[in-house]
Design a protein that fits this description.
The protein has helices at about 35-45, 85-90, 115-125, 140-150, 165-175, 185-195, 220-230, 245-250, 260-270, and strands at about 20-25, 50-55, 60-65, 130-135, 155-160, 180, 205-210, 215, 215-220, 235-240, 255-260. The chain is α/β, with parallel strands linked by helices. α4 links the parallel β4 and β5 (about 155-160).
């Protein structure tokens, strides 16, 4: 059983009036992922937040990209950690996007570039941004925090990492910033509850942003959503692109849909 615990106070990042629609990589089914083309589209649609990923360039810039290399999404090759800003700026980040399985490439040669985190935070000064740090270690986390503070964006970001150490450091250094549960935190929470020791299942995270399933294991369930809600912790589910699945998760009490199709999710949430 879960022991009574005082719920965490709500943070400004989270929506109180309705579930959030978070555009995954800006809405990667609609425009080139992790680019201004995608983020602009998400804002135009009315998404509550955008999700993005960051790496650090050779010369210390926080670059918005999911992959550690530029090979999949641009016309270039190489690791972001080995490239300097000038080389990264020369790449076509719209080169690979196709809405019709290779039938067309509407953003190719249209000047779409890899953005920097500080540029995203500055361009959308009221937009909530979910930041996934893809680099282990504290150097990248310090650089991200510096960008967030310089933009005055502490109240409108939520920061995550698959690694524990960067998030532990961030929580100690900037306790007012919302954070995602790390993979290890999610596993620990689920394990304690599976053992019938819900009273021991606590978390410092602001939100569990998780897939509905991890391999054959179910992660999200109505019971998990309720258990976390009692602790003041939201559940967001990624990456959900089908309307029927969105409706089912929302009926369970899920408070955020992370999706490559923010257009579909907004129709569902708005009813």
């Amino acid at each position: 059983m879960d022991a009574p615990v005082p719920p965490k106070p709500p943070l400004p990042f989270f929506s109180a009036d309705r579930p959030m629609v978070i555009a995954h990589r800006g809405g990667s089914a609609l425009a080139p992922e992790n680019t201004f083309a995608a983020f602009d589209r998400a804002v135009e649609l009315g998404a509550d937040a955008v999700e993005l990923d960051v790496h650090v360039s050779r010369d210390g810039h926080v670059v918005v990209s999911h992959d550690p290399t530029v090979d999949r999404t641009t016309d270039g090759t190489g690791a972001i950690a080995d490239l300097e800003l000038g080389a990264l700026r020369a790449l076509d980040a719209g080169h690979a996007f196709t809405p019709d399985d290779g039938g067309s490439f509407p953003f190719r040669g249209q000047g779409v570039r890899l953005p920097l985190l500080h540029e995203v935070l500055g361009r959308y000064d009221a937009l909530r941004v979910s930041i996934e740090i893809k680099v282990d270690g504290l150097e990248a986390t310090r650089a991200v925090l510096s960008c967030v503070r310089a933009a005055g964006a502490e109240s409108r970001v939520c920061v995550g990492s698959f690694q524990d150490r960067p998030i532990r450091w961030l929580r100690a250094e900037a306790p007012g910033i919302a954070t995602h549960a790390t993979a290890a935190e999610v596993r620990r929470f689920l394990t304690w509850r599976a053992l019938g020791l819900g009273w021991a299942a606590q978390t410092e995270a602001s939100v569990f942003t998780v897939p509905e399933r991890a391999g054959t294991r179910r992660v999200v369930s109505p019971r998990l959503v309720k258990a976390l809600a009692r602790r003041g912790v939201d559940v967001h589910v990624w990456c959900v692109n089908e309307a029927d699945t969105m409706r089912r998760l929302l009926a369970w009490g899920v408070r955020g849909i992370v999706t490559a199709r923010p257009d579909v999710a907004l129709d569902v949430v708005r009813g």
